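$ ./design --mode recover --in tokens.txt
reading tokens...
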């Protein structure tokens, strides 16, 4: 059986209408990352941060899965082996596309986190500054997002999956954000065949054995078809 590990980034959600970091007129172009995606930014101006993620949550709720998300869900269902999907994205488009097991290494928009006791709970609507934790009662809720300077979720599980991978695929990632940008090197060290599927070459494209460039809605379904036919 072939073990497949897949890393997805913002590029896979772009065709669903959710902007990437590099969009010239996108959401991130209107905000300083230091203000809305760091613990220090939240400490300085929690209202700005909460409003920012409320806006992103509303956008994500309206977005629909595209052909790339749906193809990966089909791979999970039909592949005769393990499929581990790791995403840097905080939207739920993989789940909307039918994926059952998704490791959100950077957290999720539809989740709140208590900074006092680490309890998590679902959030469907807007969060409020000082929102009460459902478990400990402290007014210390925050978006359940891994900000810059914080440790991504599930690293032990990710490293185990990479050590067992026969195929490692990175889809729609820029290769600029670590530790995810280093996953290809780790997978290669363990003997995996590595492939990048991207709109354009990433910052770590030279690390991959194989590349396919184009829209995710086209390259990913074609790649999945190839895998399921072998």
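writing sequence...
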């Amino acid at each position: 059986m072939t073990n497949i590990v897949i890393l997805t980034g913002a590029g896979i959600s772009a065709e669903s209408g959710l902007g990437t970091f590099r969009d010239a007129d996108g959401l991130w172009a209107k905000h300083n990352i230091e203000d809305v995606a760091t613990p220090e930014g939240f400490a300085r101006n929690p209202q700005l941060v909460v409003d920012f993620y409320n806006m992103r949550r509303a956008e994500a709720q309206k977005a629909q899965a595209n052909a790339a998300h749906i193809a990966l869900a089909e791979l999970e269902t039909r592949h005769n082996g393990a499929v581990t999907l790791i995403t840097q994205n905080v939207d739920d488009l993989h789940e909307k596309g039918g994926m059952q097991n998704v490791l959100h290494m950077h957290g999720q928009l539809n989740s709140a986190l208590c900074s006092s006791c680490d309890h998590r709970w679902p959030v469907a609507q807007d969060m409020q500054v000082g929102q009460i934790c459902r478990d400990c009662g402290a007014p210390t809720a925050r978006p359940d997002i891994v900000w810059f300077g914080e440790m991504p979720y599930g690293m032990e599980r990710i490293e185990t999956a990479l050590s067992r991978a026969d195929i490692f695929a990175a889809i729609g990632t820029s290769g600029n954000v670590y530790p995810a940008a280093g996953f290809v090197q780790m997978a290669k060290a363990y003997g995996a065949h590595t492939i990048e599927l991207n709109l354009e070459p990433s910052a770590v494209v030279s690390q991959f054995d194989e590349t396919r460039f184009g829209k995710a809605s086209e390259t990913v379904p074609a790649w999945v078809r190839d895998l399921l036919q072998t």
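exit 0
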